[in-house]
Design a protein that fits this description.
about 15% strand; three-stranded antiparallel sheet; two-stranded parallel ribbon; DNA-binding
DNA sequence: ATCGTCATATGAA
DNA sequence: TTCATATGACGAT
Protein backbone atom coordinates (compact mmCIF):
# COMPACT_ATOMS: atom_id res chain seq x y z
CA UNK A 1 0.00 0.00 0.00
CA UNK A 2 1.39 3.32 -1.04
CA UNK A 3 -0.05 6.45 0.56
CA UNK A 4 -0.24 9.94 -0.85
CA UNK A 5 -1.78 13.17 0.38
CA UNK A 6 -4.49 15.03 -1.47
CA UNK A 7 -4.92 18.67 -0.51
CA UNK A 8 -8.40 20.04 -1.17
CA UNK A 9 -10.38 23.03 -0.03
CA UNK A 10 -11.94 20.70 2.55
CA UNK A 11 -8.71 19.52 4.04
CA UNK A 12 -6.06 16.94 3.53
CA UNK A 13 -7.41 13.65 2.22
CA UNK A 14 -5.26 10.55 2.05
CA UNK A 15 -5.27 8.00 -0.76
CA UNK A 16 -3.89 4.46 -0.60
CA UNK A 17 -2.89 2.58 -3.75
CA UNK A 18 -2.12 -1.00 -4.54
CA UNK A 19 -0.41 -1.92 -7.77
CA UNK A 20 -3.85 -2.23 -9.36
CA UNK A 21 -5.25 1.14 -8.45
CA UNK A 22 -6.82 3.20 -5.72
CA UNK A 23 -8.00 1.03 -2.86
CA UNK A 24 -8.61 3.41 0.07
CA UNK A 25 -9.63 7.00 0.52
CA UNK A 26 -9.49 8.60 3.96
CA UNK A 27 -11.12 11.79 5.16
CA UNK A 28 -9.00 14.53 6.71
CA UNK A 29 -8.06 13.55 10.22
CA UNK A 30 -8.59 9.83 9.73
CA UNK A 31 -5.67 7.60 10.53
CA UNK A 32 -4.25 5.00 8.23
CA UNK A 33 -5.84 1.67 9.19
CA UNK A 34 -3.46 -1.06 10.26
CA UNK A 35 -5.15 -3.88 8.47
CA UNK A 36 -4.33 -3.16 4.85
CA UNK A 37 -5.72 -5.95 2.77
CA UNK A 38 -4.35 -4.44 -0.40
CA UNK A 39 -1.05 -5.64 -1.76
CA UNK A 40 2.11 -3.63 -1.86
CA UNK A 41 2.62 -0.97 -4.49
CA UNK A 42 6.15 0.28 -4.57
CA UNK A 43 5.67 2.81 -7.29
CA UNK A 44 2.68 4.82 -8.27
CA UNK A 45 4.41 6.32 -11.25
CA UNK A 46 1.24 6.69 -13.28
CA UNK A 47 -0.80 9.85 -13.05
CA UNK A 48 -3.22 8.14 -10.69
CA UNK A 49 -2.60 10.82 -8.14
CA UNK A 50 -3.60 13.58 -10.50
CA UNK A 51 -6.69 11.68 -11.59
CA UNK A 52 -7.66 11.00 -8.00
CA UNK A 53 -7.13 14.59 -6.96
CA UNK A 54 -9.18 15.94 -9.86
CA UNK A 55 -12.00 13.48 -9.35
CA UNK A 56 -12.06 14.15 -5.63
CA UNK A 57 -12.18 17.91 -6.03
CA UNK A 58 -14.95 17.59 -8.60
CA UNK A 59 -17.05 15.47 -6.23
CA UNK A 60 -16.45 17.85 -3.36
CA UNK A 61 -17.71 20.67 -5.54
CA UNK A 62 -20.83 18.69 -6.45
CA UNK A 63 -19.75 17.99 -10.00
CA UNK A 64 -19.35 14.71 -11.87
CA UNK A 65 -15.69 13.70 -12.24
CA UNK A 66 -14.52 13.58 -15.84
CA UNK A 67 -12.25 10.64 -15.35
CA UNK A 68 -11.72 8.22 -12.49
CA UNK A 69 -8.43 6.59 -11.53
CA UNK A 70 -8.40 2.78 -11.64
CA UNK A 71 -10.11 1.42 -8.55
CA UNK A 72 -8.91 -1.67 -6.73
CA UNK A 73 -11.62 -3.06 -4.50
CA UNK A 74 -10.41 -6.64 -4.80
CA UNK A 75 -10.57 -6.92 -1.03
CA UNK A 76 -14.38 -6.93 -1.11
CA UNK A 77 -16.78 -9.84 -1.38
CA UNK A 78 -18.75 -10.43 -4.58
CA UNK A 79 -21.81 -8.88 -3.08
CA UNK A 80 -19.94 -5.80 -1.93
CA UNK A 81 -18.35 -5.32 -5.33
CA UNK A 82 -21.76 -5.45 -6.96
CA UNK A 83 -23.08 -2.85 -4.55
CA UNK A 84 -20.11 -0.55 -5.07
CA UNK A 85 -20.41 -0.89 -8.82
CA UNK A 86 -24.06 0.08 -8.58
CA UNK A 87 -23.10 3.12 -6.53
CA UNK A 88 -20.92 4.40 -9.36
CA UNK A 89 -23.95 4.39 -11.61
CA UNK A 90 -25.97 6.81 -9.51
CA UNK A 91 -25.77 10.16 -11.32
CA UNK A 92 -24.69 13.31 -9.50
CA UNK A 93 -27.62 15.01 -7.87
CA UNK A 94 -29.75 11.86 -7.67
CA UNK A 95 -30.26 9.40 -4.87
CA UNK A 96 -31.43 5.83 -4.35
CA UNK A 97 -32.68 4.10 -1.25
CA UNK A 98 -30.97 1.08 0.27
CA UNK A 99 -33.98 -0.95 -0.76
CA UNK A 100 -33.82 0.29 -4.37
CA UNK A 101 -30.29 -0.93 -4.69
CA UNK A 102 -31.10 -4.28 -3.15
CA UNK A 103 -33.91 -4.72 -5.64
CA UNK A 104 -31.69 -3.73 -8.54
CA UNK A 105 -29.16 -6.32 -7.44
CA UNK A 106 -31.86 -8.93 -7.37
CA UNK A 107 -31.84 -9.31 -3.60
CA UNK A 108 -35.31 -8.24 -2.65
CA UNK A 109 -35.47 -7.41 1.01
CA UNK A 110 -31.73 -7.08 1.26
CA UNK A 111 -31.79 -3.39 2.11
CA UNK A 112 -29.94 -3.96 5.31
CA UNK A 113 -27.26 -5.98 3.58
CA UNK A 114 -26.79 -3.11 1.14
CA UNK A 115 -26.38 -0.71 4.05
CA UNK A 116 -23.68 -2.90 5.49
CA UNK A 117 -21.92 -3.07 2.14
CA UNK A 118 -22.05 0.72 1.80
CA UNK A 119 -20.49 1.04 5.21
CA UNK A 120 -17.67 -1.17 4.00
CA UNK A 121 -16.99 1.00 0.96
CA UNK A 122 -13.24 1.70 1.09
CA UNK A 123 -13.43 4.66 -1.26
CA UNK A 124 -16.09 7.09 -0.05
CA UNK A 125 -16.85 10.30 -1.98
CA UNK A 126 -15.45 8.95 -5.24
CA UNK A 127 -17.68 5.91 -4.94
CA UNK A 128 -20.75 7.90 -3.98
CA UNK A 129 -22.15 5.98 -1.07
CA UNK A 130 -23.50 9.31 0.17
CA UNK A 131 -26.17 9.22 -2.54
CA UNK A 132 -27.91 6.36 -0.79
CA UNK A 133 -30.67 7.43 1.60
CA UNK A 134 -33.24 5.56 3.65
CA UNK A 135 -36.59 4.98 1.99
CA UNK A 136 -38.08 8.00 3.79
CA UNK A 137 -35.29 10.26 2.50
CA UNK A 138 -33.62 10.17 5.89
CA UNK A 139 -29.85 9.95 6.01
CA UNK A 140 -28.77 6.50 7.03
CA UNK A 141 -25.19 6.66 8.17
CA UNK A 142 -21.82 7.48 6.74
CA UNK A 143 -18.36 6.14 7.34
CA UNK A 144 -16.80 9.57 7.57
CA UNK A 145 -19.55 10.97 9.77
CA UNK A 146 -22.95 12.33 8.82
CA UNK A 147 -21.60 15.87 8.51
CA UNK A 148 -19.76 14.88 5.39
CA UNK A 149 -22.79 13.13 3.96
CA UNK A 150 -24.91 16.24 4.48
CA UNK A 151 -22.24 18.50 3.02
CA UNK A 152 -21.79 16.37 -0.10
CA UNK A 153 -25.50 16.13 -0.75
CA UNK A 154 -26.03 19.84 -0.27
CA UNK A 155 -23.36 20.64 -2.81
CA UNK A 156 -25.05 18.39 -5.35
CA UNK A 157 -28.31 20.17 -4.74
CA UNK A 158 -29.99 17.09 -3.32
CA UNK A 159 -32.94 17.18 -1.01
CA UNK A 160 -33.04 15.03 2.11
CA UNK A 161 -34.36 15.01 5.64
C1' DA B 1 -47.16 6.92 16.10
C1' DT B 2 -44.33 3.10 17.94
C1' DC B 3 -43.05 -1.83 18.35
C1' DG B 4 -41.80 -6.50 17.13
C1' DT B 5 -40.49 -9.52 13.56
C1' DC B 6 -38.57 -11.27 9.49
C1' DA B 7 -35.41 -11.08 5.49
C1' DT B 8 -30.51 -10.14 3.59
C1' DA B 9 -24.74 -10.34 3.73
C1' DT B 10 -20.95 -10.16 6.62
C1' DG B 11 -17.75 -10.26 10.27
C1' DA B 12 -16.89 -10.54 15.17
C1' DA B 13 -17.31 -13.01 19.44
C1' DT C 1 -24.32 -20.04 16.23
C1' DT C 2 -25.73 -15.70 17.88
C1' DC C 3 -25.46 -10.82 17.54
C1' DA C 4 -25.22 -6.25 15.44
C1' DT C 5 -25.21 -3.39 11.26
C1' DA C 6 -25.65 3.06 7.40
C1' DT C 7 -33.01 -0.85 6.03
C1' DG C 8 -37.73 -1.77 5.17
C1' DA C 9 -42.39 -3.86 4.77
C1' DC C 10 -46.09 -5.44 7.49
C1' DG C 11 -49.21 -6.34 11.13
C1' DA C 12 -50.57 -5.38 15.89
C1' DT C 13 -51.01 -2.27 19.65
Amino acid sequence: MHWTLLPTSDGLFRAGYSSNGLCRLLFPGQDVPENLSCNEADEVDLDWEALTADALRAQLAGRTPEEMPPLDWSSGTDFQKRVWQALLEIPTGETRSYGDLALKLGVEGGARAVGTACGANPIPVLVPCHRVLAADQGLGGFSGGLDWKRRLLEREGTLFK
